[in-house]
Design goal:
Length: about 250
């Protein structure tokens, strides 16, 4: 907490939330008045204090009136605390990766221009997630070789491993923020190839099946063509012989 002339703001330095779920950002404060019945404004902003983007704002005109929401970006921010009870805590719904920001709470009391206070260091929100396989494919290159590619996301960024039939150890890994891709090159053996993604919050698996087309040799190809043709000729001769015999 930070105190100045009877003012103080108390927030945790860090809060962790899970992707797709909700999280609560706590904020409480004190002011130098024993009672206060004038207009009160609660504000939350992101990225930086004082000049950051406002993502939530509510106003209460008197102690008997609830704080009416004036701004709630994308309608995902809800007031949980009661500003009249010195509590500005909010709930953030449906967390996305972009919600990983620093949040700052602010209170403004109508009257003297100095009756306003804001958390200077704010709260760092960390969005975490168990791994999820988002793409897994097998493709061919211009040099007629085959490779399997697996892309997963999670936070912390997951570690990827390939398992399956005997294969070359040629592989490459690339990552960007919470997303990781690992490519397995020069596939030569048929079968099932499994990609496993693991981080501290869980694991996920995805699989692809690789079967390389092999053309039949010439002798087998000739047999496949002429055996059915020979059978048809024999059947035709039998039918003609039967017809002649009947006549």
């Amino acid at each position: 907490g930070v105190q100045c002339n009877g003012w103080s703001v108390h927030v945790p330095s860090d809060v962790t939330g899970e992707l797709g779920k909700m999280v609560i950002l706590p904020c409480t404060f004190t002011h130098p008045y024993k009672t206060f019945d004038r207009a009160l404004t609660a504000i939350w902003r992101i990225k930086e204090p004082y000049n950051g983007t406002v993502i939530f704002k509510c106003v209460s005109q008197s102690s008997s009136e609830l704080c009416k929401t004036a701004i709630s970006h994308k309608n995902k921010y809800k007031l949980l605390g009661n500003p009249r009870h010195k509590d500005l805590s909010i709930r953030v719904d449906s967390l996305t990766w972009s919600d990983s920001e620093r949040y700052f709470c602010r209170v403004e009391l109508a009257g003297d221009s100095q009756d306003k206070y804001e958390s200077r260091n704010g709260i760092k929100l960390h969005v975490v997630a168990a791994p999820r396989i988002i793409n897994i494919t097998v493709s061919s290159s211009r040099d007629h070789t085959f490779q399997a590619r697996c892309t997963a996301e999670g936070e912390p960024a997951p570690a990827l491993t390939w398992t399956g039939p005997l294969y070359s150890n040629l592989s490459s890994t690339s990552s960007s923020s919470h997303r990781v891709t690992k490519e397995l090159r020069s596939l030569t053996h048929d079968g099932k190839y499994t990609c496993t993604a693991v981080n501290s919050h869980g694991r996920a698996e995805g699989a692809v099946y690789f079967y390389k087309f092999r053309a039949s040799d010439s002798s087998s190809f000739m047999i496949l063509i002429f055996v059915p043709l020979g059978i048809k000729v024999v059947i035709l001769l039998v039918i003609l012989s039967f017809t002649v015999f009947s006549r």
